[in-house]
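Re: duplicated header lines in exported structure tokens

Our pipeline writes sequence and tokens for each protein into one text file. With two proteins the header for the second block appears twice in some exports. Here is an export where it did not happen, for reference. First protein block:
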Amino acid sequence: MDKRHFPDFYRQNVTKVYRFVYFRVHGDKHLAEDLTQDVFMKALQAFETFDPEISQTSWIFTIARNHLINHMDKQRPTVSLEDVQEVLPDKLDAMERLALKHDEQRLIMALKALPAEDAELVRLKYLEGWAYEEIAEQTGKTAGSLRVQAHRALKALKSSLKHK
């Protein structure tokens, strides 16, 4: 496609890609922003070779998924300075931030407890905002079956969160 269409492509997909990356880097906002930027730089470089017959969503998420895999292969577990600073009681809203961080961690742990396919569906639909039709395109399932699976996964997630 013509690179003149890239700004529209970017606006249509940046939020979804950011959410996709954010939850896979366990809520590290700055890392998610950097990786999302990298994904779109790669997309821009290859945009002229993009086949409009292919779903734009599938194409950009394939780039994002591959970039995340490459990034994770290069990383070792560390604690970021920002995580440590967020816990320090230097601001009035420190308790609120701690409570939010705690809730995020509970959600991440509850998602990990779900079967991988259900966790991925919940992430895509409810955390990243994909339509069932887009997910169906990615997974080869029908939108109707995904709705049922998502409903069951949410029930299991709610139950898991109540018990934690």
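Second protein block, exported in the same file:
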Amino acid sequence: MTGAALQRIAEEGDMPAGERVHAESAVTEDSAEALAYLVDPFSLVGEVPGVELLQASWSSEQIDYDPDSPEWDLDEEDGDESYDTEDGAERAG
């Protein structure tokens, strides 16, 4: 992700040198900054009827990943969703 963000910065021909140095430093040090150079939140929702984006921000944090922890079970549902069963009954997930 950082490499793609650095490439995007390098391709911006009208960026002043001082701003370029700052941008390169920011995307190298923070993955949220790199993401911000790759994804424009205004373009994501700009065409959605009834939606007006007033402000957007990105943040990230380092976490300890334990693949054996039950907290990291990606197949587990949160339990707040409901779904229809084959017999048409609605069940809580």
